[in-house]
Amino acid sequence: MVGASALYVFLIPIESRLALTWPLVGMLLVLATTGELVEIAASAWSVGRHDASRRTKLLSVVGSIIGALCGFLIGAPAPPIGPILGSLLCACTGAFLGAFVGEIWKGRNLDETWKIGKAAFWGRLLGAVGKIGIGFVIILLILVGLVTKTV
Question: Could you give the 3-state DSSP secondary structure of residue 60?
């Protein structure tokens, strides 16, 4: 959304009735970066609450990224909802698997490993919900910016 908005600002003159401004694109970039950080931090925080190792946190994030890419490909034949739901579900599952592997590797018992894996799943889901909320704010700012040119 930020890239499309920047391209729009570059191509559409400010005098146009439906124009965006560079300050708005800057705000969108800050919000998009915040959304990414919220998503990653929620996943790492959730496993950190259960005394997970750094390795587990890292594997949880890597697993969620791989899962999101795989989920996008799995859901691609059913656009537009398929890639979104596929990415979300597989990212959460990837976070679970990454944390699970990290804790097994550490030598933890299966019960603790399962708890940390579940925490990674739900943390990733919570982070995605936060990111989606920030995405809606970005959409609203773009719409307000198009109509008012004051943002």
Answer: helix
- Residue for token pair 């594997």: 59
Quote the CA–CA distance of 63 and 100 in Å, as a whole number: 10
Domain ranges of the chain: 2-148
Region of 19 on the Ramachandran plot (φ > 0 left; ψ -120 to 50 alpha; else beta): beta
Fill in the amino acid letter for 42: A
d(CA 128, CA 138): 15
**What is the DSSP secondary-structure string of 95-113?**
HHHHHHHHHHHHT--HHHH
The residue type of 12 is: I
pLDDT in tens, 84-126: 999 999 999 999 999 999 999 999 999 999 999 999 999 999 9
Q: What is the pTM of this model?
A: 0.82
